Amino acid sequence: VPRQCGLLCSQNYPLYIRSVPTENELKFHYTVHTSLDVVDEKISAMGKALVDQRELYLGLLYPTEDYKVYGYVTNSKVKFVMVVDSSNTALRDNEIRSMFRKLHNSYTDIMCNPFYNPGDRIHSRAFDTMVNSMMMQVC
């Protein structure tokens, strides 16, 4: 079960960050921002292969003692970061991948809204509901 979900634009400022539970929110913000170097490293390592791929799942960015940090990048260089408990061994790679796909589909719905300005923070009840249900589901 993800502890935190973050969307960052191509310039690396947050579009959306959600933490469950909220008491360690600052620590999770730090974790998401420290993962950006690893995301950029993986993107540059993939290079031209990334352009040809439709699947932009970066996999495990790095593990810590308490958490595992996963990454995903869209074609428009929006970065999705998910922080998961290290103790959760039931969560498989393909489940993380499907969570990112679901997140990407919801993000696409927001981008299609004519009242949303790309680059603004995301304030959407539907997006919040989707993220909350994803974070609360028992794997």
From TrEMBL:
Part of the multisubunit transport protein particle (TRAPP) complex. GO terms for cellular component: endoplasmic reticulum; Golgi apparatus; perinuclear region of cytoplasm; TRAPP complex. Signal peptide: none annotated. GO terms for biological process: endoplasmic reticulum to Golgi vesicle-mediated transport. Its main location: cytoplasm. The gene is Trappc2l. This is Trafficking protein particle complex subunit. It comes from Pheucticus melanocephalus. Belongs to the TRAPP small subunits family. Sedlin subfamily. It is found in: Cytoplasm, Perinuclear region; Endoplasmic reticulum; Golgi apparatus, cis-Golgi network; Golgi apparatus. It comes from the Eukaryota. Keywords: Cytoplasm, Endoplasmic reticulum, ER-Golgi transport, Golgi apparatus, Transport.
